[in-house]
Amino acid sequence: MVQCTGNLACLSSNFIGSLFSTGLSPSTISSHVSTIGYIYKVLDLQDPTQSFLTKKNLKGCHSVLKSPDSRLPITLDILRKPITALNHVIPHAVNRSLLNAFFLIAVNGFFRIGELAVKTKADNVIARPDIHFDYDKQQMKGVVLVLRHYKTNVEHSPITIYVPVNSSPVNCPVRALHEYFTVFKHSTGPLFQFMDGKPVSYSYVTEQLRKTISFIGLDPKQYTGYSFRIGAATHAASIGLAENVIQNLGRWNSKTMRRYTRLQCLSI
């Protein structure tokens, strides 16, 4: 604890230290500090809670008491269950086709949900013209997806993602995407759209995922949109892919991918 008198910033830091020692959560400590700051603003006085020292102390509380990430992976094996649940929780067949393709492509392509479903701007998601199927003598071998906007794209260069056909007649991402295109015949705009041409939103996907996860008896707080990416990294590690390969597949610029590989969570 900082020992000083006559300095409001130091007193504020002492207050934070006192709250921290009682075991309060970082959010509760921040709420108490915000209340003090509000009083100073009302009285038109200099706010000590906005000082460099106070902000650093609050940041330290959040770092030390950071809650562990409880999100679990949706691996390729686990994915079969929410895919099956679509038949029970999604009433319209066209939307089942959409979500089936979305879920399978998300895991197999290491996609962030925001790269496939619109949060704010439709221009930031993968586009329909950037999708091409790969054929060899009229036999479909895979799908090529060109991703132009992604989190670590500091050089603003597109990246090509190749997803091959797999042997599963039900859980093949390439066949699922091809089936989606037989129903949704748009040639422009975002890859994933509704029948009326509106882009599929981030909130829609996460809500439907929550429904399918709940239906199969799992905790939707533990299986979220991030679970697709966690599942992709975990599956890749489970089959023995090297870290640098997983890092490239997931478009990570650092060893951050280690936080996504959770081999201890493979069974549900």
From TrEMBL:
Any Gene Ontology biological process: DNA integration
Gene3D superfamilies to which the protein is assigned, alphabetical: 1.10.150.130, Intergrase catalytic core
Q: Which InterPro entries match?
A: DNA_brk_join_enz (IPR011010), Integrase-like_cat_sf (IPR013762), Integrase_catalytic (IPR002104), Integrase_recombinase_N (IPR010998), Phage_Integrase-like_Recomb (IPR052925)
Identify the PROSITE patterns for this entry: TYR_RECOMBINASE
GO molecular function ontology, one term from the record: DNA binding
Q: Where is the Tyr recombinase domain?
A: 71-268
UniProt keyword terms in alphabetical order? DNA recombination, DNA-binding
Name of the molecule in the record: Tyr recombinase domain-containing protein
Q: Which organism is it from?
A: Pinctada imbricata
